[in-house]
Amino acid sequence: MNQVLVISGASKGIGWATAKRYLQAGFRVINLSRSPCELPEVSNLSVDLLDPNWEQQHTDALLDLVGEPEKLVLVHNAAMMTKETVQTLESETLRRVMELNVVAPAALNRLLIPRMKTGSSIIYISSTLGRKAVANTHAYVVSKHAAIGQMRATCQDLAGTLIHTAAVCPGFTETEMLKEHLGAHPEVYQQITAGIAHKRLAQPEEIAETIWFASQNPVLNGAIIDANLGQIEV
Questions:
Q1: What does pTM read for this prediction?
Q2: Cα–Cα distance, 77 to 168 (Å, whole number)
Q3: How many CA within 13 A on the CB side of residue 90?
Q4: Distance from CA of residue 99 to its chain's centroid?
């Protein structure tokens, strides 16, 4: 069976683990990112999704790689996280974050939905911060709330097509992006895990398995899936 995964940002972290999971299931995997996914079976298309002109440059190559699959899964994984508050947020920073986290997924939807047959799916990677907020991450919080709204709108627009969609909301996950955001401060990690019911960070492979499950089960159409090991309520 000709099954294809198109995923953005599969060079590391959750994206890399997701690419590996779909390869194990027999999918052809196409990664869209500036850096390649080093898994040898992955087809890499070097794309800067922050560039508003990427569609003009890469649409033909993308559609050639995708072909006419029997099932197509599209995972919107690439994201940017910045540090700022409502008082300090620059307009250009917000534009860049929204370009990658929200605008690029919309463009990919428009390009690839015509190639989707019954049983295909679109999975948005939102965040725990798509459901709540913390200080000093203003643009990212806004964009991840938008991703959930985008998923809900996708569900309504695709009614009757038998293509389904869901949003996976990872909690604190042991990725390069989290490490860069938090810095090398063990006490910060201790504070984080103290608020998690399982007292540890999620692993990229666990999130990848959640993405796989969501993409294969149309009963989850329109669902928001918290993948955070349980948050301790205070």
A1: 0.95
A2: 10
A3: 5
A4: 14
Burial (Cβ within 10 Å: 0-12, 13-18, ≥19) of residue 189: middle
State the DSSP H helix or E strand holding residue 3, giving kind and residue range, or none if neither. strand 3-8
Q: Contact at 8 Å (CB) between 122 and 163? A: yes
- 102 lies in some domain: yes
Amino acid 181: pLDDT: 61
Least Cα distance to 116 among 148, 158, 145, 78 occurs for: 158
> Which two three-digit tokens encode residue 202?
């999620």
Is there a domain that residue 135 lies in? Answer: yes
State the total domains in the chain. 1
The pLDDT tens digits of the residues spanning 121-164 come to 999 999 999 999 999 999 999 999 999 999 999 999 999 999 99
Residues in the chain: 234
Helix (H, G, I), strand (E, B) or coil at 14: helix
Cβ-count burial 79-91 (b if 16+ within 10 Å, e if not): bbbbebeeeeeee
